[in-house]
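Q: What does the assembly look like in three dimensions?
Context provided by user:
Components: two
Sequences:
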Amino acid sequence: MNLLSRISLYYVIVSLSVFTAGGLFFYTTFRHEVYEELDEQLRDEKRNIERILSSSDTIPFFYSAVNSQIIIHPAPSDLSIKLQRIDTIIVHAYEGKIPFRQWRFTFNTDKKNFIIVIRKSLIDLEDLSEKIIYAFFISFITLLLGSLAVNFVLIKYTLRPFYQTLHQLRKYSLDHSGRLKVGHTNTKEFKELNKTLELMTERIQQDYKKIKEFTENASHEIQTPLAIIQSKLELLMQFEDMGDQQASLIQTAHEAADRLSRINQTLILLTRIENREFISNEKIDFGELTSSLLSQMNEQFLLKGLKTKITAHEPFFYAIHKTLAEILISNLLVNALRYSDAGSEININITKNSFSISNPGKPFSFAPEKLFQRFFKKTSSSGSMGIGLSLVKTIADVHHLKVNYSFKNSHHIFALVI
Amino acid sequence: MKILIIEDEAELLVSVKSYLASEGFLCETAADFDSAILLIDMYDYDCFVVDLALPKGNGLDVIERIKKKNSNAGIIIISAKNSIDDKLKGLELGSDDYLTKPFHLSELNARIKAVLRRRNFDGKNVASYGDLKIDLNAHHVFINENEIILTHKEYELLLYFLSNRNKVLPKAAIAEHLLGNYIDQADSFDFIYSHIKNLRKKIMDSGGADPIKTIYGLGYKFLNVESA
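A: Here is the predicted structure of the complete assembly.
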């Protein structure tokens, strides 16, 4: 829910409850006042009737109208009713049902006893209430809609700098944008927000640049000392009269240096891919490239007794630097090669907009997203550097290709999707 | 064969020189741009090993200078940068190969020999080592005149061994030579082990002597046989 609808919703909720409470209070107070007034009239009438009855022996005639009725009957002398005040409905011959306020009571003179009912019509009151509620409701709705509209426009107008800033932030990328460009505003809070954001992004950008430079420099500077270490170890290996112990020490050191060198080279490559140093508009036929890579790696597959099968429904073409395409596909192939059981079949499926490699295997015991993390190792003993799939992911990301992993019918499937 | 190694990192220069010298190359060295230019102008070499980042100059200019002299020598670039641009520029200027630091000495040696082979064996491209004979054009291998059929990788492996005869080749160097970089090489040692096993078997089945010695803990060594 966006800010505008949220504010409007709260506004409506609050106004509704305030208006409802106010309306209810108004209505009950109004009813109460009107009843008081009616009861006052009835009390006067009662007093009047009692006065007349006290001074007269016969039942006098009282005129009854539609909205005001007086009924007097003689009553047994022992009957005494406490005053009953109720609302009732009387069915009138022409007017239909009419609500009345009714008082019923007995009156005793020296000689006679009377039962008296006096009524006053409530119909005016009901009419009035209805009209008041109606008017109230109409004005409430108008007021609500009106203020909602005003609010809407006001909020939209005052929040404009905020939305502009948000838009700029969304577009912002540490790699490619320079400074964050924010719009002009006179609102103090937004001014502060913009200023803070500008300062913050500037600082982040500087830090980012520094870190990037450091990583690049460090990686490059490591190459030469590594080259020296490696070459010295290789010269050392050439000595004839070496014991097994020395040999094994040299070998361990050499392997570590070699590993370090490959990790470093891959990291440099990753940085350079992220810096978009490899740009090419040449469209690469993934099917063709895969066949040629497979024929180069053929012996590795044969050694494990793996079969490979390419099913190309339609050719998959994509604009990507050839070197990167090779790295992309070979790493996926090596991955399938490594984690397939001997004798199984690796399937490469190519459609117009997807390229997938599937190999049989057991489901992973970890979250599949981890597969693409740098230096994530599937098993501690695999000896893999855990960088192949993250290389795949980086290359795919830079080229706006999606890498999907899924596990279906006991097959691991890695797919590149346009 | 005379080689000029142009590299500013003294220790690396010493290593390269020492390895190549033990292969029978006559090595001269230059540690900066000016002395490199001086040597290039004064002497002739069969092959140049050029570092691109030099004090007081750029390795690419050195290559231009070599080419200006109309030299037919092989040129191999070594660089810490591994930049595709530099690589392309270098190849355009007429260099033959590009190696990224850090590299294995055996790899550099193999590349130099490949370059020299391409230049010097013009018509006749058959090399013999003891009872082993290789037709480098047709990629045929013979033991005592009987052809043995090698897979592509086995052939590459054999050439690599032959380029580095009597040298201990670490497994990591062999793996990189056969499989290349940028690929997680977790199972590569098994892979080279079985290739070496197959290569040995094929040579011995044809009546050749086992030329590959396993050096405990380190790697493999192709025993030197008299080059016929």
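Follow-up: The first strand of chain A starts at residue 68 and ends at 74.
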